[in-house]
Amino acid sequence: MSNAIVRVENLHKAYGDTEVLKGVNLEVDEGEVLVVIGPSGTGKSTMLRCINLLTRPDQGRVWVAGDEITAPHADVNQIRERVGMVFQDFNLFSHLTAEGNVMVALTKVKKMSKDEARKLAMFELERVGLSDKAQLYPAQLSGGQKQRVAIARALAMDPSVMLFDEPTSALDPELIGEVLEVMKKLAREGMTMIVVTHEMGFAREVSTRMIFMEHGVIAEQGPTQQLFYNPQHPRTREFLGKITELYGHEQGEA
Amino acid sequence: MDKLPDILGSLPYLLEGALLTLAITVLALISGFVIGLPLALLRVYGRKPAATLAAAYSTVLRGLPSLVVLFILFYGMAAVVKLPAFLAGCVALGFCSSAYQMELLRGAIQSVGPGQMMAARALGMSQLQAIIHIILPQALRLAIPSWSNEAAVVLKDSSLVYAVGLAELLRRSQQVAARTYQSFIVYSLCALIYFAMTFLANRGLDHAERALRLPTPLEETAH
Amino acid sequence: MDVTFWEMIWPALGRGLLTTLQISAVALTLGFLMGIPAALLRVYGPKWLRWLSVGYIEIFRGTPLLVQLFVIYYGLPDLARALEGLGIEAQFLVLDRMLAAYVALGLNSGAYQAEYFRSAIQAISSGQIMAARALGMSQFQAVTHIVLPQALRLAIPAWSNEVAYMVKYTSVVFIISVPDLLARGQFIISKYYNPMEILLTVGAIYLMIVLGLSTIMGKIERAATIPGLQMEVERG
Predict the structure, then answer these.
(1) Residues 6+ apart with CB under 8 A from A209
(2) With respect to CATH, is domain B4-222 assigned 1.10.3720.10?
(3) φ, ψ for residue B15 (rounded to 5)?
(4) Cα gap A119→C6, rounded to integer Å
(5) Partner residue facing C199 (CB), from B76, B157, B177
(6) Do residues C102 and C173 touch, judged by C-beta distance below 8 A?
(7) Residues contacting residue C236 through CB under 8 Å, at least 6 positions apart
(8) Under an 8 A CB cutoff, do A91 and C127 touch?
């Protein structure tokens, strides 16, 4: 078997009559930053959720760091620990402080002691620049701060790969930059990342590879430079044109 | 089980009791509404002393067990005026319900929103006209779900009138149980009749709510 | 009412009040222990357990407390006798009046509490569970560490209503001769024949207890408040 961190084979998923995924194959190697683009409703988020089995595929297999999460008796919870996930709408636990959000899975899932967990939580909050907000509740944080706490929460589990499901689309424009900065830093540190996003500046600057998804399949993929400046598929070209028009050419660039 | 025919023979007797239960419930709900609505209006639109008085009325009555209110009216008042058990039951449950109905009507009135009152006044309506023609037609519709809940509460509480000896459903069940020595079956049957009544009452009021619902959602909310 | 009369009746009313509070406390606790699992089963349980939970909740919410008390206090011993006729030992169904009061009020309160907890659980967004699962928590861990701590806080206002409701409704146990506050009051009335004073006194005691408990519950609610948690419920 290859040393891929994530391997996806022939993924199918339908909701009722709507086929969302129609046979997706994918391999992501260690250190890769993969950006997934495509029109909405083409299965990008569903594919992401199939990787840690938050959505169960109808057909197909998924491996994370060599373990098959779709195997009949796989310890799904244990494999999920190694897959960090960041959601579009943050999903911070409303009853816990920023620190508590980072700590809860460390103490309950990893069975760390409170002191150890607190130390690690503070370290991760420091990493996303929020150590001074540790004692605040989600409702007291801005959207950008919430998303950074969510990233710290996922990082604390020491994942082998991080999944980002449109991490900036619920944010006001002026708050997007701080989240992208944290993600760029993460990429530079060598974290393996799969990012569903419309932020083309981010994609061009840090991604190593890009995927264009449409109608439940991967329509085109390739190194970032190639997909950006020399897309083969006419629909990729069209989509890139539209998205640049919509989001501005330079947006998200530092 | 040999008593089963006897128990079934008592069914008409029990159902007659259920009619009495329904009569108490309906009369208590009506008197509760008649007292509760003006108090709710006073609470929302009244001047300070009147609004405070209405609030106190609600707090006191919601803090008293219905059984105590019933006893005050039936035994406590006996020295002054001897109320028949039926009347005492209707009035006691009516008073208790009025406090709850006042609260649920207040909630409904407040959720109609100040803009409606302002618009009505701008058209030259008096406050009373605005309340009658604009606020209440909306508020009463909004109140139906909570009112349906209150109706079920009063229906169940009507069993308390048992304690002053009125031959309503529960009292008659007790008589049948004592005669047949089949307490379990008779009281379960009694529970079933109550259950059917609350179920049907809720269903009926659900239908009323749907039939009366305004086509567009009411968008204004309080504050 | 002169002072000596008050001194004479107070010990009896005090004992009655203690019984009332004791029954309320036991019923609320039992109701909590019934209500939480009933709510969880109704939301997360497999189909047959969901129906079991719905059946329990609807039966106890759909019938009068007094009738439930009669079925349990008068009906169950009768059922036990019938079962013994069939050779089945069922003496445990025969409850003394105090135990019958605990069981009836506890089961009744459990059904109402289950509904309060259910609506609180359902007010919590599904994203909370999803995020917990993504971190590697099992469904059970997600419910105990993420859903319940939020749902219990959201249920506090409804729960304080239930406390007041239970204290008031304990008065029905007087009908099966449990010596609660109202029963003690009635006993004094039968002895001295002064119903109005005694009933007003008894009513005032209930009122003070209910208001006092509501104040305490309000304090607890404020102490347990977490910024933003209440708002999310209002938004639905």
Answers:
(1) A32, A33, A34, A35, A221, A222, A223, A224
(2) yes
(3) -65, -35
(4) 63
(5) B76
(6) no
(7) C123
(8) yes
Structure tokens of A75?
Answer: 């310890």
Measured between beta carbons, the chain A residues lying within 8 angstroms of C225 are: none
- To 10 degrees, what angle do helices B66-74 and B85-112 make? 130
Q: Which CATH number belongs to the domain containing residue C39 in this structure?
A: 1.10.3720.10
Which segments of C52-134 are extended strands (E)?
A: none
Provide the β-strand partners of residue B96.
none
Q: What is the pLDDT of residue A98?
A: 95
The beta-carbon neighbor of B60 closest among C62, C175, C207 is C207
Q: Is C223 on the interface with B (CB under 8 A)?
A: no
The model's pLDDT over C175-221, given as tens digits with 9 standing for 90+, comes to 999 999 999 998 988 888 788 989 999 999 999 999 999 999 999 98
Domain limits, chain B: 4-222
In chain C, the number of structural domains is 1
Name the residue among B68, B159, B170 with its Cβ closest to that of C202: B68
Interface subset of C 66-125, CB within 8 angstroms of A: 124-125
pLDDT digits (tens, 9 = 90+) for B80-137: 888 999 999 999 999 999 999 999 999 999 998 788 888 888 887 888 889 998 899 9
Q: How many residues does chain A have?
A: 254
> Looking at the partner chain, which of B75, B173, B187 has a beta carbon nearest the beta carbon of C199?
B75
Q: How far apart are CA A60 and CA A233, in angstroms?
A: 26
Who's near A233: CB < 8 A, 6+ residues apart?
Answer: A212, A219, A220
Structure tokens at B60: 């006191």
What is the Cα–Cα distance from A187 to B128, expressed in whole angstroms? 68
- Residues paired with residue A28 on neighbouring β-strands, in sequence order: A6
What's B218's DSSP letter? P
Parent domain of C38? 3-235
Q: Please check the confidence at residue A240 and state whether its pLDDT lies above 70.
A: yes
The fraction of chain C above a pLDDT of 70, given in percent, is 96
Report the distance separating Cα A44 and Cα A163, nearest Å: 11
Whether residue A104 lies within 8 A of chain C, CB to CB, comes out as yes
Question: Rounded CA gap, A188 and C212, in Å?
Answer: 61
Distance in Å, alpha carbon of A167 to nearest chain C alpha carbon: 14
* CA B142 from centre of chain: 17
Contact A/B (≥3 CB pairs under 8 Å): no
Q: d(Cα C147, Cα C149) in Å, to the nearest integer?
A: 6
The ipTM estimated for the assembled molecules is: 0.89
**Where do we find the tokens 């009122």?**
C207
Q: Cα C212 to chain center, whole Å?
A: 17
Beta carbons of C207 and B64 less than 8 Å apart: yes
Q: Which of residues 45-84 of C touch B (CB under 8 A)?
A: 59, 62-68, 70-71, 74-79, 82
Instruction: Please state the pTM of the whole predicted model.
Output: 0.86
